[in-house]
Amino acid sequence: MPDTDTSRSVRNFADLPALYAAMTETPDFQRAFGDPIPLSIIEPGDAPGEHDMPEPLAVQAECGAIVAAMFDLFADTRMAPLAAEVAWGIVNSFHFVAQKLERREDALADELGELARRPDLSEVYNNEMEEKQILCQSVAEHRAAMECCRDYAAEMYRVQSGWPWSPSRGSRASKASTATQVAIQDYLRQRELDQRERYLPRGPLVVASGHAQWHDWQLVWDRLDAIRERITTMTVVTTAQRKGFDAIVAAWCASRNVPLLAFGLMGGGRRAPFLRNRKLAELKPVEAVLGEGSGIQANLYQTLRQAGVPIHAFRKADQAPVAQVGRPGGALLRRAA
User: Fold this and answer.
1) CA distance 149 to 253
2) Which tens digit of pLDDT belongs to each residue from 52-64?
3) 297 and 184 together in one domain
4) By residue range, what is the domain housing residue 302?
5) What is the pLDDT of residues 200-256, one digit of tens each?
6) Measured between alpha carbons, how far is 129 from 133 in angstroms, rounded to an integer?
7) With contact defined as beta carbons under 8 Å apart, do 108 and 139 qualify?
8) Domain count across the chain
9) Which residues contact 210 (CB under 8 A, 6 or more apart)?
10) Spatial separation of the C-alpha atoms in residues 294 and 274, rounded to whole Å
11) What's the pTM value of the predicted model, to 2 decimals?
12) How far apart are the first and last CA of the chain?
């Protein structure tokens, strides 16, 4: 992870190419910024043109540096407790823009689909289709770039704070067609497949849920590590609480790069938690890691047990004393930064 000193060097170094040659961007930034589409449209109404993307390494360095700078600036001062809140907002800014671009991309894809359903052999129609496709691809490229920045900034947030970043809400192409139409249909079909993959993590599901006041992260991490040794492609499902047991599980997933599904309550009423528990069992998880909690948690245990799911259960009394437990891997993570 780049630190603020590296970032200052990037800004002040006279021969940037020489500095970049001494460093290496990650494959994610190389994919997002290093291979731009040949023609792009920056704003609707613009003609397609050749536009450069920012240097992958420079983007990577700055995305990490602006988050790390907040922790460095407030460290060892009375402002230190606020560093994580400010840094969370920085990451959320990337996420907000990425979401806005995703909605724009979806709207453009719908417009493309509508045009493709009304074939017209005129040159005007073909030009409109081509420009709309380039615009949609350009927005998709921008969205992917913003997501890359968000994910890297979120990783720096995790390294600095010891906890994973998460948003406040939400989720982490006829035989009569012209050649242009066929290309657009292929593009739309591929885009749909890509969207499905983005929101459909693969691998056996492991449910992990516990009390919001849980503090012993090492106990939970050790058990999840043991399960991952046997189920290397696992995906974890939590009950989406933002603190305690579920937050500890989310931190483990972030540190191990394991997909995480947050299964929050859907709808209101007293039955919502119990309906959620039943739907968790209907996902057919292969194992579960549960911490002692309320009656809702006891119901989850019973529901999964009746479904034949192997359960690793922890009582509150199994935890180490609070004085012996720090934040998840905090000291190690800060040294690694």
Assistant:
1) 19
2) 999 999 999 999 8
3) no
4) 205-336
5) 777 899 999 999 999 999 999 999 999 999 999 999 999 888 888 998 998 898 888
6) 6
7) yes
8) 2
9) 220, 244, 245, 246, 248, 290, 291, 292, 293, 297, 314
10) 12
11) 0.67
12) 6
